[in-house]
Give the backbone structure.
Amino acid sequence: MSLLQILEPGAATEEPVIRRLAVGIDLGTTHSLVATLDNGQVRVLLNDAGEALLPSVVGFQADGRAQVGRAAREAAIHNPGATFHSIKRFMGRGTADLAQAGPLPYQVVEGDGMIRFQTPRGPLSPVEISAEILKVLRVRAEAALGGPLHGAVITVPAYFDDGQRQATRDAARLAGIEVLRLLNEPTAAAVAYGLDKGSEGIFAIYDLGGGTFDLSILRLRQGVFEVLATAGNTALGGDDFDRRLADWFLAETDLALTPAAYSELLAHARRAKEALSTVEAVELAFDAGAGPRPACRITREQFAALTADLVQKTLQLTRRALRDAGFTPAEVDGVVLVGGASRMPQVRAAVAECFGKPPLIDLDPDQVVALGAAIQANVLAGNRDGEDWLLLDVIPLSLGIETMGGLVEKIIPRNSTLPIARAQDFTTFKDGQTAMGLHIVQGERDLAADCRSLARFELRGIPPLAAGAARIQVLFQVDADGLVSVSATEESTGTGAQVVVKPSYGLSDEDITRMLADSLAHAQDDARARILAEQKVEAQRLIEATRAALNADGAALLNDAEIAAMLQAVQHLEDSLAGSDGEAISLAKSALDALTDPFAARRMDHNIRTALAGRRVQEIGG
Amino acid sequence: MTAMVASDYFAVFDLPPAFAQDPTELERRYLEMQTRVHPDRHAHQDAAQRRAAVEQAARINEAYRNLKDPLTRSTHLLALRGVDVLSAGSIPLPADFLFQQMSWHEDLEAARKAGDQDRLARLAESLLAERERLVQMLIRTLDEERDDNAAAQRVRQLMFLRRLIEQAQAAIEEWEFS
């Protein structure tokens, strides 16, 4: 066996420098893009035609093949029923949510839970359709960087709830991308700006995308980006401005259109909207087939009046976030505009008026989110490049549990800093009650029915005690991605029903495996080979990490017997990697995991003590 | 993870268990510790290390959240001294506070119904000033006189005030979103 070198405590413990290929992906409503950081320079990656923006449009041809981007958008006119625009709007949503979406040219598959659309490839969920966009970006990135991706940071609107976040992560897994982190879009923009300018102070990030609006208030200082508050609306964006323009056109011209023709009119409206950012007036025309070609002229001022209430809505949310953060608009040092829709002059003017200062627009609002994500991806992949900064983000919506009478008991208030672990005790309502239903919801309203349902589960096996005697501890955990898990334990007897909650519209691990298998041409064998390959990479990572940890802290924190046991487990795992028995690798990996868990906890404690000790030294010295 | 329920949040930051705290110093220690344990700092390590990082970062967040706010800080300090603020509820609040509280409520209702934003803003301001006055009194009661029962009563007054402040802010928001 290979001998492991144990360093003296205090000796240099630099891990070997391995450059891991990591990217930032902005999976947007109207377009998506991918960026990376190399040689200290952050840049977006272009396709063969030199374009950065990939339109978030997916079309399915008669043979089931997917077309993504510009080609799909151009073919949409011949294939409206199987061309999906703005699919992000449906991520993590159920069929009940479709009512608000307006007329759609797609055929919805009836059923509970996640939305599914009928396509030439069969019924597909928004997760699977989004995965097609991500696949194109992965291929683009791997071609540009010359190797397989280590992982990606994928951005989501800050106001995305748990279901929408889970759906985004699932889409990435389907596309074969290891998700290093789900990062909030405004936070990503702040990273791009903050690191670019080296600024300190209070910043407001106003992010009006194609389909979502987010406003985050951040404090930047000493290399820490701290999100203080966030507010938003995941169903308000540039698309709504297009729709206003299209509806105005229909009212002016007395036209009635099929859903497919309306989709086309929307595309015209979008171009007119974009043109109005640079010219004072445009003509909106539409070829309705027979008869004369109706056309209407609209001025910038008219357009602003048509959409004034949409802009007002964003300002209301802005004021709410400021109140949550405890600041007035005048106290904000800088306002950053993000998202293509923030280019509209009426939006810029309204934001400038609200804060009493002109917004910052140095970085391209279409690219800034992907650039920030790339910077964070580089850090998470372990390519530090001497950067020393930290992001502290928050949960956008309160988490709670339904109690008697359909009321919500809030457990974690919105804008709490991530990660979070909070326990709350509940008790039984009736004598001899042995089961309890738990309904986890997310939102700000008082009634559970008005909040978003995340999950329901039952805790069984509670000992039959008098009403109010049982102690059920419900533990809520939210990780750094903003993903929620909940477990419950009956405390008086220790009856542990640990339940990890999957969101109501989420995918199970089996679903993912099946979809991965389905999407591969050679089904099962390839899927198995791929899973084995992933397992081996994971195991190799664990071995490397364990060795590095032993090198760094082994001598200080472990005794000889513990070190020997860990080395033996490492050797076992290495031996199993030589074969192709997935089960054996998995067993050897769990054995090593069991040893590294307590070691990791000790290392973290050690870390904290060092932090405090370091401070004492500073105090004496300073 | 369950241990965090009974843990001493002051000890997390190596601070003496006292009500008066320098917010700048508390924040500095918080950021320094997060800089070391946050999961982002351990993202490229093994799963055990990543889990430990999430647990510790969550514990530090929880401790900071409780110490940052005077209401939760005083409740926690009293709990460490064996006083449960809520079960101290049998001691009646002073009559003048109850009267004052009723008049604030009436003021709030009237302003809300009339949609009088200036009046709501003025009310919110005087509530915040009252809260600051109570906090100053609590420093004396908790840290100097160490009269825990009197302190528990003041903490309950703080709770009433917080609810009123929240209601005033909700009224301001309701008007803005209408």
Q: What stands out?
A: Chain B has seven helices and no strands.
